[in-house]
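Progress narrative, Year 2. Work on Initiator Replication protein from Selenomonas ruminantium advanced from sequence curation to structure prediction during this period.
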Amino acid sequence: MPPKKSQIVSQNPEYIYQNLNFDTPTKFANELMFARHSMKENEMKIWLLTMASLAKENLIDHDVLYEYNISILADKLSINKDKGWRNIIREALDNVSDKSLRIVKRYSSEEDKHNWIKIPLYNSVEYNDFNDTVSVAINQKMLPYLQDFSEKFTEVDIDEMLAIRGITQLKVFMVVKELIAEGTYSISIERFKERLNMPVTSYANFRDFQRDVLKKAEKQIRKNTSLKQFHFSHDGKGRRAATTITIHLTDVESKVLPAPKKIITTEDKIANLDSEHLRLFDEFSSFGVKPESTCLEIINTYSIEVLKSNLAYYKEQLKKRKPEQEPLSAGYLITCVKKDYAKSRRKSWLRKSDTNGSVETELQKTDMQLEDVYKTCKNNAGVIIKKGNIKKLLEIFDVASMSMENMAANMGIPFDVGDARIKIQKRDLRNKETMLFREHLAQRLMSGYITMDSLI
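Result:
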């Protein structure tokens, strides 16, 4: 006998809208984080987002449909909305609705890997194109992995997880967070691969694993998370194969760093010079005494009388120089001051310094000589790069690397310190990186800071 119409009960499902703002870290059961699945990057991120939002609920009901705005989902996944973003979300939701997780049962031992349960990611998925929403129902067997646990869980910042690019890099980050939560910073390579749901036999050559997995993940983690100085190391050495990976952290939040001390720069010291010392600083600099720190040291170390008299002595020697003679360098000016060549006729040289013309006039008189000095120093710098002591050259390069980066930035040209260092080791003069270092060496030669004899 067919049932009466009054006996048919129409049951409308309950919809609960979910907010995807996360003010605090989310707790994930470790079994859930490392369950086996076949999700791709966007699919996994959508699933993680829904799980994180449900973890905030006081009570999760598997009969309730939890509703999400797909535009907000797209924003969370950093999907470009210029073109086709709805199709990307639809495709990911369609794929994730057919997939399942193979989870090790809660509280099973580490060794008991066969005690598992297979659960669909969602009981149902409803896509509403008119409202731009998607609603999901959770399988009841998933509930123990979402709430009410006090151990074997990992706290993660869901927004940091979403910022990681690449499914493998995301899995590596999840392993790292679990190990940090456990206080374990070393893990065997075999167990690490298992945590990534990767066959132990994959990447038989550790160097390939290091290049394609560890280094790429390290770059993503440092760029997109709070672990800015995070890196991996391993126990392999020489022919001994690596068996263990170690995590290194230096950004421990509990460590309170002292307030930074104010650093007085060379520019600050120059700005504090009085007018007389500043005039002498400008004049010594104009004759090639560089860098500024060296020139400043000369100005502050010696008295005004010594500086003025020896500068006058140096100018006089420049005038007496014959065309066929090697031009005088800035190093000779420094030597004049340090050895005080003007000492015997101090008053005479001081009178000359007072009657000498302006810096511009003196520069006009000696412009050709200074240009010749620079050309000579630049040629000598090339010889040093080609034939000099490589260890001393690299020491000078390492100290000057920041200065060369600034020089390149001012010139508007790209400059990579690592590439430049390799080219110096190869003694390659035909590139822009070596050109900047050659300029640096030429300035040091002009100022007398280094000599050819000390490097060759």
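The chain is about 50% helix and 10% strand. The chain has four domains: 12-148, 164-253, 266-354, 360-448.
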